[in-house]
Amino acid sequence: MMKQYFLFILFLLLVSSNNFGQTFSDDFTGLTTATNLAGQSSWTKGGTGPDATVDNATPLTYEGYNGGGGEYVVMPVGVATSSRVFKLFTTPITSYTGTTVYFSFLLRLTATADSATAMGYFLTLGDAAGSTSALSPKLYARKNGTGFNIGVSKQTTTNWKIHWGTTVLNLNQTYLVVEKYVFHTAGIQPAVEGYDDECYLWVNPAITASEPNVNTAEIQHLGGGTLDPDFDGYQAIAGGIGSVIWNNRTITNPSGAFDGIRVANGATGTDAWTNLNPAAVPVEMTAFSANSINGNVELAWKTATEKNNNGFDVERKSANSDFVKIGFVKGNGTTTNFSSYSFTDKNINANSAYSYRLKQVDFDGTFFYSNVVNVSAGQTPSTFALGQNFPNPFNPSTSISYSVPLSGVVTLAIFNTLGQKVKEVVNQFQEAGNYTVSLNASDLSSGNYIYNISLNGQSINKKMLLLK
User: 396 preceded by cis ω (within 30°)?
Assistant: First the structure.
């Protein structure tokens, strides 16, 4: 999906409530890949250890979340030398001294250390100088079987009173992480909690109009002492929250990537989630495909609704280049009707592989990236073939590639394990060529599925796994 403005505590840029506001956002769009994050877009290096870097090979996206896509930050394998890269808040505020803060980001880890060793945190909110010494939340990851757990702590000491979630998350899968943190200081704390802060962390929450019940959170903290000894004491706000920090503290820091950072605040005594105004009509993409036909690459996409849509920059990436703009397709402004678009890329090399993405641009210059689709150009395929979907497991979008050696009516459908058809992806006449389609499974439940392709009496099945 290209862009959706849903009612969600901190995902909207169009909120006008006086009790809630977006304090910080960064999608790392347009940063130079294969270089350090520090020195770009006001990110600053601290310490002598490793730097985070920028890449855009496999963008991080989450259906309905208006962050991520395109460039993202790569966290190196942890080393013993401490370092951090931070960015200070600038507008609309330089620091926030209220009692409630919301923090969200997209996360895809590739490796984590054993839980038996001392853990180092990798993301946190800092003060207006980029310091990690006085503020929360500090986020951790530890190995659990072939996956990992996520944890939080308000301490700066390595491996000190980390509160761990219990769900085993998968490596190499993108997750949306959302945290709500409530500071309690002397004189304003709930009596049952003493001076203890509150912390709720959701992984892949439903993006709806209401804040999820705290009982659905992966990490739930309702007080210290006997209720939750991991959060004894309270966290001083000092001069206020004023920065986002990536931190490397020990060799146990996880490696992977993050993107789509959002920080927002709620006024004292209010529920920021319920103060949001209705969202604008989304530019909602329902399909995006790249097909190699007769020596060209044919791109096709559809939208269900559009709001102030000026159009789409078509961007292409090859093995030897970053994404570059190769064309523009005019949008339909504001409409609630289904719209279909296409673009033909004729400037390609035979037997080469390409990646494509769309940059949807509003009339005011606001833009959002689509998912990336990959396609192999070149000669007409000689065999009928169906590739394994990627990524797999996935949530909620994945790409399916297939080859059609002869023209004919192609059907590509998704079936549950009972053999019932749950979604039809393709059902149309297609010329011989190589095709890639993007599947959006946000309307399906987690579980195993079978995808089947048929052409001229031939049929191929493969399995896929949806994990929400």
Answer: yes
Distance CA 410, CA 419 (A): 19
Residue 184: band (very low, low, confident or very high) from pLDDT cuts 50, 70, 90: low
Give the span between the Cα atoms of 141 and 77, in whole angstroms. 13
Contact 216, 208 (CB under 8 A): no
262-288 residues labelled b (16+ CB within 10 A) or e (exposed): bbbbbbeeeebbebbeebbbbbbbbbb
Residue 198: burial class (beta carbons within 10 Å; 0-12, 13-18, 19+): buried
* Model confidence, pTM: 0.58
* Domains of the chain, start order: 20-275 (2.60.120), 281-377 (2.60.40.10), 380-468 (2.60.40.1930)
User: Can you give the pLDDT at residue 149?
Assistant: 93
Phi-psi region of 378 (alpha: psi -120 to 50; beta: other; left: phi over 0): left
3-state helix, strand, coil in the chain (%, to 5): 5, 45, 50
Model pLDDT for residues 440-467, shown as the tens digit of each residue: 888 888 899 999 999 998 999 999 999 8
